[in-house]
Amino acid sequence: MRKPILLMACCLLGWGTHLFAQQDAVSAGGTANGTGGSVTYTIGETNYSNTTGNGGTITQGVQQPFEIYLVSIKEMSLAVDMSLFPNPTNDYVILNIPGGNIEDLMYQLYDMNGKILIEKKLDGTQTNIYMANYAAATYFIKVTNSKNESKEFKLIKN
């Protein structure tokens, strides 16, 4: 008689715990589906646990914590006097380096997405960069030397 009561008590206790295992007041959530499966997520509760094995670590819980790690890369500024004009432009810009040593200097023109459009060595103390073939947008010109020191200009193409 004791065994059936003990068994029934364990079943009820287990059923009751399972029923309320993932209930919590959260602000939002949803399900993300993909070719590898689906993941259900919630926002608003930071109750979670980690399980580590040979293949890696899995974190489970009502909400995964959002952590941001910042990695700082110190970029040396290029100590060369230079200017870029006209800015904004329609057809071309002039990269002017008066009296500067341009031997190891090169420039990159890239778009807002970081795609490099032009990468060349400087022609002389005045380098013309033609922009007529590019759409009206914001671009960047980065001048670097062999020591990875750089100077960057924001360029607006009308």
Topology (SSEs and partners):
Elements: H1 2-19, E1 28-34, E2 37-43, E3 48-53, E4 56-61, E5 83-85, E6 92-96, E7 106-110, E8 116-121, E9 126-130, E10 137-144, E11 150-157
Antiparallel strand pairs: 1-2, 3-4, 5-6, 6-9, 7-8, 7-10, 10-11
Your description of this structure?
It is a single chain. This protein is mainly β and 158 residues long. It folds into 2 domains: 40 residues, no CATH class; 75 residues, Immunoglobulin-like, CATH 2.60.40.1220. The chain is 11% helix and 42% strand. A 4-stranded antiparallel β-sheet has the order 8-7-10-11, with no helix packed on it. Strands 5-6-9 form a 3-stranded antiparallel β-sheet, with no helix packed on it. The termini are far apart. About 4% of the residues have low confidence.
Entry summary:
With 158 residues, this protein is mainly β. It has one helix at 2-19, and strands spanning 28-34, 37-43, 48-53, 56-61, 83-85, 92-96, 106-110, 116-121, 126-130, 137-144, 150-157. The protein is elongated.
CATH architecture of the largest domain: Sandwich
Overall domain count: 2
Text of the CATH class of the largest domain: Mainly Beta
Strand order of the largest sheet: 8-7-10-11
Q: Roughly what fraction of the amino acids lie in strands? A: 35-45%
CATH topology of the largest domain: Immunoglobulin-like
- pLDDT averaged residue by residue: 77
Tell me the distance between the termini.
Answer: 89 Å
Helix and strand element order? HEEEEEEEEEEE
Please tally the β strands and state the result.
11
